[in-house]
Structure formats: C-alpha cells, structure tokens
Amino acid sequence: MGKLSNRTIMSGGHFLRWWGGFLFVLTAPAWGWSDHASLVWPLLREQPDIVTRSVPAESLRQFLTAEQNAIAQTLDDVEVWSAQNIAHYPLTPASLSWRNSSGPIVERFLSAIRVNPSLSYPLYVGPSPERSNPVVKPLPWSALSFLGGGNAQQASRYWSLTEGESVSVAEVLATASDEPDLGMDIGLFDDNGTAFGQRYGFGRQPFGNPNLDYGSQAPFHMGFYHLDWLARVAQPDLQRTYPLWRIALFGELADVAFRTGHPYWGWRFLGWGLHYVGDLTQPYHAVPLPGVSTLQALWSVVQGKTSEMVQLVSNRHGVIESYQYQRLKAALAAEEWSAPLLRAVAEQGNTEPLEYTSFVMDLTRASVAAASEFNAVIATHVSPRFVSDPNFEWTGSGFEVGLVDTVRRERGQAAVTQLDAVVAEQLERFSRVASQWIARGHLPPEEAAKRVTQQEAVMANE
Ligand SMILES: [Zn+2]
Ligand SMILES: [Zn+2]
Question: Which of 3, 34, 190, 395 has the smallest number of Cβ neighbours within 10 A?
Fold first, then answer.
C-alpha cells in the first residue's frame, strides 16, 4: 500500500477509501482456538453426568420432521429477540422463514438458520482423547467439509454413526463444538459468489477479503462488541459481527430439542453454540487489532503502513493459536491431567443460568481487557521472526508443529513458562463461560429420565 500525504488523508473520500483498505486486509485467520473438541475435553471429563451418559443418534431430517411446529415457534422467537437485541441484525428474508418455505425439509431448515447448505450435517463423532479409535475406517475429511482444513482438522479422526446408535453425550458435545469451523459460516454474504449468499440477506461482507473462505466466516466467529467511539465512527462495518446471534440461535434450538425429547440434537446444538462462546474468549476474536489503539491504527493509514500492522496482528493471532493447540495436544496425549493448562480448562466450574446478551457482553469485555497484555507477552516471548516481521506469513509457513521447541530453543524455557501462563489465563476464562454454557444441557434428573424414556419409545416404534 503506497504512502499517503496528510492532505490526502484528510479529504473524506480518500480517508474512507484507505480505511476501507484496512478492512480489506483484516483477514485474520478465522480459526478460533484450534481444535475446540480437544480444548473442551479437560472440562467435560470432570462432569460425571456428561461422561457417563449416552443418547441415541438421530438424523437431522428425523428431528426436523418430528418437531416442525415447535421449531417454527423457536425460530420465530429467536428472530424477534434478535431484531430487538442485536444491533445491525439483518432480518431473515421472509422467503427463508421455516413457516413459509416449501421444499425438502433439511434444505428449508438450513436456509431458515442461514448456514452453508452445501454441507450435509451427517451423523458422526470424534472419539474422546481417552478412548481408542474404532477399528473401522474413519470418514474421509471430504465427507464433512469442502475446506482444505488446518493441521488439527485434517487428521482423520471422525467416524460415521448410524441412526439410533448410542453415543456419549460428552463426545457429541465435543465433536459439535468443532463443527462451525467446517464451513457452516462460509460464503454467506452477498459478495461471496454463492447462490445462497445472495439469498441470505447479510449484505456485503463487512471486513476481510470476500474471496477467501476464512475471511467470509470471520464476521460470525469474531465479535467486536466493545469498539471505541472513533472506531465505530470511522469504521461502522466492524460492528457487523454475529456470534451473539449464532449463540442465541443454537442455544434456543438446543432447548427446543431437549424439551421435545431429542437429546442428541440438544447436545449437538449446544456444542455448536459452544464453538462461538469459545472463540470469543480468544482476545484476537474480540478486538480487531490487539495492542494497537484506534489512533495508532489511523496513524498507520497515514504512514501507509496498514498492511504491515495487520500482518503482524494476523501472525500473532495465528502463532498463539498454534502454540495453544500444540501445548494442549501434547498434554492430552500424555494424559497429564494435572498439567497447568489442562487444570486451567478443568477447574472453573460455573453453572449459573445465563442470559445471552449480558453473557456475551461480559465475556467479550473480559477478552478485550486481556488483549493488550496477551499481545505484549506474545510479542516479547515468541521468536521475532514469527511475530515481529511484517514480511513473514505465519499461516502455511510450516513452523506450526515445531513451534514450542523453536521458542524453547531460541527464547529459553522462561519464554515457554510465560506463554503458558498467559494462555492459561485465557483458558480459565474459557472454562468459566464454557461450563456455564454446558450447564444449559443439564436437566433435573427426573426430567432427564422422562425424556430418555420418551426418546427410547419413539425409537422403538420405528
Ligand atoms: Zn482465531
Ligand atoms: Zn471459529
């Protein structure tokens, strides 16, 4: 991006155009914490009623067919709530509404909840880190996603389930908490070159490159709910982020599934919602440019250094997610349940009831508050070539797997200790909100027993 004089910057048209350029390059990797299923496992394994319970798998088609009216009411309620509570909420076009539409039932539902309809949302599960893999062949990645996927996702570790097969609640929840990264939120905007994007009513993609897959999911997996006034005025499009909507939508769908005796879909929708809750605990998903004030961002536009600044932020974002993933994966593989990072995820149990807006605003406020220090610790302790060189691109660099060893070799064990400590702080926040979210699936025991019996009766009658 070329240099601009102050005079150019001060003329409104140019100002907006160059600031718009800033938004275009804001193509932070939209992966949240890599591999949400592993991330949540240390928490789930501490909850006996989740680990020991199983539910019968049920296809989406069967759930939708059985509960058309209850789903219609839920979707109507979510739409009204969203219009009233979410700033910049793009109303669901009337033609997509579950009540009014016609055609195959699964397609109608995917349109009504405005997710990518080219995925099949099949019955599948990823075994927990404490269970050995089934002896039959795993599903090919292409059966679950059209994406190339990152390291975490490419490993073949998902198996097909058959209708009615008994499956652990913990595994349904953990597996589903990864699912929104398989492409559900990709291609939903007008300018993403998809037919459904043109029908969904989300308008043009608010930031990021509309031609990149992950750019297009970012506005659903990042929530910039605490921008300062200058950012809101200079760049109103940053306010068009939708994780609060996804969280409320999947929270309510989980409720209706539980209420009507479809616990498999209750846990799966709860897992989908958990994904967005988890993403928002990552400071790089709650602040567009951690460690950079709005004034500094504007100054970088004046100096023509926007893309350098964005590249650094993007690299730090990617590096810390790789770091967190590598550290957790190693501790899980070794079953080091007392390792500090796994304890951080396991120990912050919270089962208080929640209300969507204050829940999301409070958790993102905490993520925003952590962002600056998080960024500083990453900049100080990770090898400079990864986090302080604007000419370097982390994503696809091939350094992901060896990252922890490289940091240890180049920066010393003290750097690893510091990074672990700051990651543990974020994971504690994750643990608090994730346990609160998961508690929505806990029913009074007699209620749960009643529903399981009803469900079994339904399955027996078929
Ligand atoms: Zn991310
Ligand atoms: Zn995500």
Answer: 3
